[in-house]
Specification:
By secondary structure, the protein is of the alpha/beta class. Strands 1, 2, 3, 4, 5, 6, 7, 8, 9 and 10 form a ten-stranded mixed sheet that branches. The longest helix has 22 residues. The radius of gyration is 21 Å and the shape is globular. The two termini are 40 Å apart.
């Protein structure tokens, strides 16, 4: 089935622009005349992959008879997959998943594309909160106590994240700047090894999405100190937010969709509307909720403004922290 769909995709490429954009003009709907490629710039198995597969299933009936093919292009902090989208034809048949690294990367990396010129924002999908937690061995269960000890012992303690340049890393840098902390950042390739080090007490703190931290919190392997959202997490309502101590300090990871630069604006609007319909599907809503994603779609213009503001925000944080990855 995959091979047949892929051959159909190749066979329809030559006439794709007319099929994708012309059908909108004729029917008032987005009706792709060939399979739509949904590019995921991460490895299979994570939250982005789960969202992509949910969307592919929910969008297929709306775009029938065309299928939606999830296509993985991981690497370089999502840059490889995003660059693939940037270099694709602007015919409505290639859509790219993005997440918080999309607005962080311009501040810390040299990129093979222009983050604004080479993409048409489609819609935000949703957001998720982060959790600052401590190893039980550290012996503090309140944010104020933990920060006081770190501040009294500059450079002694360390905090793990799932990667340099991630939203977790930037949340840590924002906290260090606001609280005046000297806290060593220890980046891992993924959260699994970080959880092991926290459980063993070799690293004192961790910043990780709330949902993936929950099993460890429930098992007593992590002590929750503060969440990063604008409001308290409904998964951990007893845990304060960072903003309760540091007003204005919030970090929400997000997921969204973009198309190659030059994609017709009407096509973009129709895709965004169909994605909003797909996200409202009860099965999709139940699954996104189960992985800790607060669904919050945006129309293209609003999403474009959101991306611009987020890019500027993280550029200032990176500049102040002297962060750069080459």
């Amino acid at each position: 089935m995959f091979r047949r769909d892929f051959l159909s995709f190749l066979g329809g490429a030559a006439c794709a622009p007319a099929l994708a954009q012309g059908n909108v003009a004729q029917t008032g709907r987005f009706q792709p005349g060939a399979p739509v490629r949904l590019v995921v710039p991460n490895d299979p198995g994570g939250a982005m992959d789960i969202i992509a597969r949910l969307l592919a299933s929910a969008l297929a009936p709306l775009w029938s008879p065309a299928n939606v093919i999830v296509d993985y292009h991981p690497g370089a902090g999502t840059v490889l997959g995003t660059n693939f989208v940037a270099k694709s034809r602007p015919d409505g048949l290639t859509i790219g998943m993005i997440a918080t690294p999309h607005v962080i990367n311009p501040a810390i990396r040299s990129l093979p594309f222009d983050p604004e010129r080479d993409f048409v924002p489609l819609t935000r999908i949703g957001t998720s909160d982060l959790l600052l937690s401590a190893s039980p061995a550290f012996g503090a269960d309140r944010l104020a106590d933990a920060l006081a000890r770190v501040k009294a012992n500059p450079g002694k303690y360390s905090c793990a994240t799932a990667g340099a340049g991630s939203s977790m890393h930037f949340a840590l840098e924002m906290l260090k700047q606001r609280a005046g902390l000297e806290l060593l950042h220890v980046p891992f390739k993924g959260s699994g090894p970080a959880f092991i080090e926290l459980a063993a007490g070799r690293i004192e703190f961790l910043v990780e999405p709330v949902f993936s931290s929950m099993p460890h919190v429930k098992a007593g392997r992590l002590v929750p100190l503060a969440t990063s959202g604008r409001q308290r997490s409904r998964y951990l309502p007893q845990v304060p937010t960072l903003a309760e101590t540091f007003p204005g300090l919030f970090v929400e990871s997000f997921f969204g969709l973009v198309a190659p630069g030059g994609t017709d604006g009407t096509v973009a609007q129709h895709i965004a509307a169909d994605v909003a319909t797909a996200l409202a599907n009860p099965q999709v809503a139940e699954r996104t909720d189960a992985i800790g994603i607060a669904v919050a779609p945006m129309p293209p213009a609003e999403f474009a403004a959101f991306l611009s503001s987020q890019t500027e925000r993280w550029r200032e944080v990176a500049k102040k922290a002297g962060m750069r990855i080459e």
